């Protein structure tokens, strides 16, 4: 069972999808703690409702992002986490956090990376005029949405789409591929060579 920590900044619908996949037996994981950088992150409420330890760690209490990440890593490791999921966590993470999990840090991003990294990925896709966008689950490195890609899903951009309608279409796919990617990790089927992620077939 994968001992998983989750960091979030807001709504937490991806956290919810992970919890539901665990409940449904589709994901062999246990969420040991949810940590947010926003006091009012709804992800914290979802965690508490499920009896999952929920922590608000205030960035204002730390001088640098490294200090913050070191404190976050200490709490999450203390809780028994062996992997970390960034689920709508809207900050760049530093080596303090990545190294604490030996590279087992994952992020979900609402575009087909390497297109449209950073904030407002759905708006970036609309403004660019692409016909397809989607979402990406990837390992986190020190760059902006730049680590090795584990899985992606594609959605069409429809005529008349707004940022909200496109985001909703993408979000449905996020909720599908995120638990799938985590299950591959939980099963030990993922290896990384340079930029390339290899998925071993199921036993
Ligand atoms: C999701 O669409 C996620 O892909 C995105 O924020 C949303 C969080 O929703 N993440 C990023 O843009 C990261 N740069 P949620 O809080 O309901 O899971």
TrEMBL record:
<dbReference type="InterPro" id="IPR004607">
    <property type="entry name" value="GART"/>
</dbReference>
<comment type="pathway">
    <text>Purine metabolism; IMP biosynthesis via de novo pathway; N(2)-formyl-N(1)-(5-phospho-D-ribosyl)glycinamide from N(1)-(5-phospho-D-ribosyl)glycinamide (10-formyl THF route): step 1/1.</text>
</comment>
<keyword id="KW-0658">Purine biosynthesis</keyword>
<feature type="binding site">
    <location>
        <position position="65"/>
    </location>
    <ligand>
        <name>(6R)-10-formyltetrahydrofolate</name>
    </ligand>
</feature>
<dbReference type="InterPro" id="IPR036477">
    <property type="entry name" value="Formyl_transf_N_sf"/>
</dbReference>
<comment type="similarity">
    <text>Belongs to the GART family.</text>
</comment>
<feature type="site" description="Raises pKa of active site His">
    <location>
        <position position="145"/>
    </location>
</feature>
<dbReference type="GO" id="GO:0005737">
    <property type="term" value="C:cytoplasm"/>
</dbReference>
<protein>
    <recommendedName>
        <fullName>Phosphoribosylglycinamide formyltransferase</fullName>
        <ecNumber>2.1.2.2</ecNumber>
    </recommendedName>
</protein>
<feature type="domain" description="Formyl transferase N-terminal">
    <location>
        <begin position="3"/>
        <end position="182"/>
    </location>
</feature>
<dbReference type="Pfam" id="PF00551">
    <property type="entry name" value="Formyl_trans_N"/>
</dbReference>
<keyword id="KW-0808">Transferase</keyword>
<feature type="binding site">
    <location>
        <begin position="90"/>
        <end position="93"/>
    </location>
    <ligand>
        <name>(6R)-10-formyltetrahydrofolate</name>
    </ligand>
</feature>
<dbReference type="InterPro" id="IPR001555">
    <property type="entry name" value="GART_AS"/>
</dbReference>
<feature type="active site" description="Proton donor">
    <location>
        <position position="109"/>
    </location>
</feature>
<feature type="binding site">
    <location>
        <position position="107"/>
    </location>
    <ligand>
        <name>(6R)-10-formyltetrahydrofolate</name>
    </ligand>
</feature>
<dbReference type="GO" id="GO:0004644">
    <property type="term" value="F:phosphoribosylglycinamide formyltransferase activity"/>
</dbReference>
<dbReference type="GO" id="GO:0006189">
    <property type="term" value="P:'de novo' IMP biosynthetic process"/>
</dbReference>
<dbReference type="InterPro" id="IPR002376">
    <property type="entry name" value="Formyl_transf_N"/>
</dbReference>
<feature type="binding site">
    <location>
        <begin position="12"/>
        <end position="14"/>
    </location>
    <ligand>
        <name>N(1)-(5-phospho-beta-D-ribosyl)glycinamide</name>
    </ligand>
</feature>
<comment type="function">
    <text>Catalyzes the transfer of a formyl group from 10-formyltetrahydrofolate to 5-phospho-ribosyl-glycinamide (GAR), producing 5-phospho-ribosyl-N-formylglycinamide (FGAR) and tetrahydrofolate.</text>
</comment>
